[in-house]
Amino acid sequence: MTESRWLDEHQQRAWRSFLAATRLLQAQLDRELQRDSGIPHAYYEILVRLSEAPDRVLRMSELADASESSRSRLSHAVTRLEEAGWVVRESCSTDRRGAFARLTDEGFAALAAAAPSHVASVRRLLIDRLTGEQLEQLRVISDTVLAGLRGTDAFAHCPQAQAVCEAAEPGSVTLPESAESAGVTPA
Amino acid sequence: MTESRWLDEHQQRAWRSFLAATRLLQAQLDRELQRDSGIPHAYYEILVRLSEAPDRVLRMSELADASESSRSRLSHAVTRLEEAGWVVRESCSTDRRGAFARLTDEGFAALAAAAPSHVASVRRLLIDRLTGEQLEQLRVISDTVLAGLRGTDAFAHCPQAQAVCEAAEPGSVTLPESAESAGVTPA
DNA sequence: AGCGTATAGTAAAGCGTTCAACTAATGATA
DNA sequence: TATCATTAGTTGAACGCTTTACTATACGCT
Question: How many Å does it take to go from CA A92 to C1' D8?
Fold first, then answer.
């Protein structure tokens, strides 16, 4: 390969700002969600994906892909969510290896209760701070990065994570990270 | 407060793409760094900050702030890094509560060995995929988010994390996330 | 000096993630 | 139908992070 190049000052600044912003933002969102609703953000996301699925049921693998999660991580998480009574596992009759995860009514209720405050956090810390143009720039940049991630280990375990990129295309309308589609819309 | 508002389709797309991209990107960078050099990214960052400090020494608190880390987390991390022989703790004579962390020669060597491949990863997955304009957009967006994070819990423990924002201002030249300033420049 | 508060740093428990190993069922091939 | 690779999912150990509590020192005020 060509000899390695460092980052110039411009790139360095962008990289460090990005690193710090994403790190602190994620930590803050996690903390607020935990504080306000007692749900870790990772689990919240799982509940959201389930809430958007038909009948609120998904194969474990599909759920793992949809939530950008490894199978192992999802398995542990579902165990926890099951203990909380928010999800139940169901076995699959056509493929006896398989398992479904189903969102319970309690789980849905917990999600509905947590969503407004979480959306408010996302708005306050990110969305409402950016102009419409910046938001669009951020989307394009994110999709570009996602496309580049394809073919790496990041997608090795979740080939369907591509759906995230494709969801950015018109046609497959994406739904809120907050159970809106499921009728919990507050507005 | 005003009634809570969901995200519109535009915002939703941006938010989800951003979420997926940052999550997968971080995971991938972490994985590659771990695979190529056996260093978790969080620890790598600590080594970088130390390598940039005068005499490669920093007070624990300063190091915590510089690496956007809680004191507790840093304390644990330094314990690990000490076990690896990459950092040593030194006591402070003027403030007996205080402690310094010093980067050892071995630590510096480990950092120098890890840097090229890590920078290459950052380039391949992020920097080189974006135009100069996009990179600048990303920097502005990140700095905006960082500014908004000020005053939240995220900054409660690290008031000096502001330095990250300010570093974006000309004057305090920021240095590479890779020990370049310390003379390990490969190019 | 003496007292109260703030600061520096560490320690321990609990939690979530990763990694590697493992079980079980499916599917493809001969 | 016997075999072997693949896929679905789970499990346990190791690891790092967070939270809370704690020790020790410094500072500020009277």
Answer: 11
pTM of the predicted protein model: 0.85
Among B132, B138, B147, the residue with its CB nearest the CB of A18 is B138
Residue B157 CA, nucleotide C14 C1', distance (Å): 21
A157 strand D contact, CB < 7 Å:
no
Contacts of B185 in chain A (CB under 8 A): 6
Please state the three-class secondary structure of B13-39 as a single string: HHHHHHHHHHHHHHHHHHHHHHHHHCC
Which residue in chain A has the smallest CA separation from B138?
A14
Q: Are B158 and B64 in contact (CB under 8 A)?
A: yes
Shortest CA to C1' contact from B45: nucleotide: D16
Question: Nearest chain B Cα to A123, which residue?
Answer: B7
- Nearest-angstrom CA–CA distance, B107 and B98: 22
| Residue B28: both structure tokens together | 């991938």
Beta pairing class for A87-91 and A99-103: antiparallel
Amino acid sitting at position A58 = L
Tell me how close the Cα of A30 comes to any Cα of chain B, in angstroms: 11
| Edge-to-edge strand ranges of the sheet holding A87-91 | A57-59, A99-103, A87-91
- H-state helical runs in chain B: 9-37, 41-52, 60-66, 71-83, 105-125, 132-149, 153-156, 162-166
Contact between residue A146 and residue B126 where contact means Cβ atoms under 8 Å apart: no
What spatial distance separates the first Cα and last Cα of chain B, rounded to whole Å? 55
pLDDT digits (tens, 9 = 90+) for A129-182: 999 999 999 999 999 999 999 767 666 544 444 444 333 322 222 334 444 444
Do B102 and B110 form a contact (C-beta atoms < 8 A)? no
